[in-house]
Design a protein that fits this description.
Elements lengths: L2 E5 L2 E6 L3 E6 L2 E6 L5 E5 L3 E3 L3 H7 L4 E4 L4 E4 L9 H8 L2 H25 L17 H23 L5 H11 L11 H23 L17 H6 L4 H12 L14 H15 L10 H17 L24
Helix pairs in contact: 2-10, 3-4, 3-8, 6-8, 6-9, 6-10, 8-9
């Protein structure tokens, strides 16, 4: 995996048309574009040259920027040649697109259920997923309602996986109350950093498969990469479990802006990558590999060459080989 992470005081600019230069004080690091899958910028103190985004786009490399309360990913989908897969994506009936989005959400839900099962916690009650109807707007409303109810129930149980002493500190010091993306506490900030990495890799995977990340099924155009947000739902349980394990070893520190400090960001990314590179006991594939493989599965499904059951993967830690703890 080749994620380039840049934070703190730094400048990025292009050398020729094939390399990035990272300047930190008097030190210069050169990275060849062929060795990079995605660029992740954290914070507002990193300067980039105006030539960087278009050059990255020409290599189909997403540029993700994690600011205080948001994640922005810059891509230029026009750079990737308009192809048959995109034609099928744009012409897909809304109901079918919503069906695909629902499969991704169901995979995320099942992955979260597996986390609870594997750790011997009771599974909360939640309604069955909706079935497709003839009216897309009604089906979409039912998906959103089901997702909201189900996620709320699962997150209430997920917090019980945090060690009591850590959970008490989160509540007393940071007013922690479960998953709240914009809340300034070490748990949510850690998970948001891990999600940002998934969004970057998911965008790269969709572009590689010839799909348009800016044209989603359930998420809409108010997001700059709605298909990425749809697609990465199934991989979120990996980040959730990695976050729980990380904070249980001790809460990372926040800086004065309420964001993870440099060491916390490094540790979050290392922990996530530890999980993404785990090898499946049977298929020998890692989650990182599946992020790219399932993007091609979506393209093949749109073409009619793949069954819907092959679109997704459900996270289950017990099916993967063990790894050494990240220090």
């Amino acid at each position: 995996m080749r994620l380039l992470v840049v934070r703190s005081e730094a400048e990025l600019y292009v050398k020729g048309r094939a390399s990035i230069i990272i300047k930190r004080e008097n030190r210069f690091d050169e990275k060849h574009l062929r060795d990079i899958d995605s660029v992740l910028i954290i914070g507002s103190s990193v300067k980039i040259s105006s030539s960087l985004p278009p050059v990255l786009s020409s290599f189909n490399i997403p540029l993700a920027i994690v600011a205080k309360n948001s994640v922005s990913i810059m891509i230029n989908p026009i750079v990737t040649q308009y192809n048959n897969y995109r034609s099928l994506q744009y012409r897909l009936e809304p109901i079918r697109g919503l069906e695909i989005a629902l499969e991704y959400i169901k995979s995320r839900v099942n992955g979260m259920v597996n986390i609870l099962k594997n750790r011997k916690l009771e599974i909360p009650n939640f309604p069955d997923p909706p079935t497709p109807g003839s009216e897309p707007k009604v089906f979409e409303q039912r998906i959103r309602s089901w997702e909201s109810q189900t996620s709320g129930a699962l997150w209430n149980s997920m917090t019980r996986l945090i060690k009591p002493s850590i959970l008490e500190e989160l509540r007393n010091k940071y007013e922690f109350n479960g998953r709240r993306p914009r809340h300034r506490d070490p748990f949510n900030k850690t998970l948001s950093i891990m999600y940002a990495v998934l969004y970057s890799l998911g965008t790269k995977a969709l572009l590689t498969a010839g799909l348009d990340p800016t044209s989603g099924f359930l998420h809409r155009t108010k997001y700059n990469i709605p298909l990425t947000f749809d697609y990465t739902e199934m991989f979120k349980p990996v980040a959730i479990e990695a976050t729980i394990d990380m904070v249980n070893e001790g809460l990372p520190d926040l800086n004065e802006d309420g964001e993870l400090n440099k060491d916390g960001v490094n540790l979050a990314i290392k922990n996530l990558y530890g999980y993404l590179t785990l090898q499946h006991k049977d298929t020998k594939k890692s989650i990182y590999q599946q992020i790219f493989l399932k993007a091609f599965s979506l393209a093949k499904f749109l073409e009619g060459d793949l069954k819907k059951e092959k679109l997704t993967i459900v996270w289950n830690r017990t099916q993967y080989r063990s790894h050494n703890k990240v220090k």
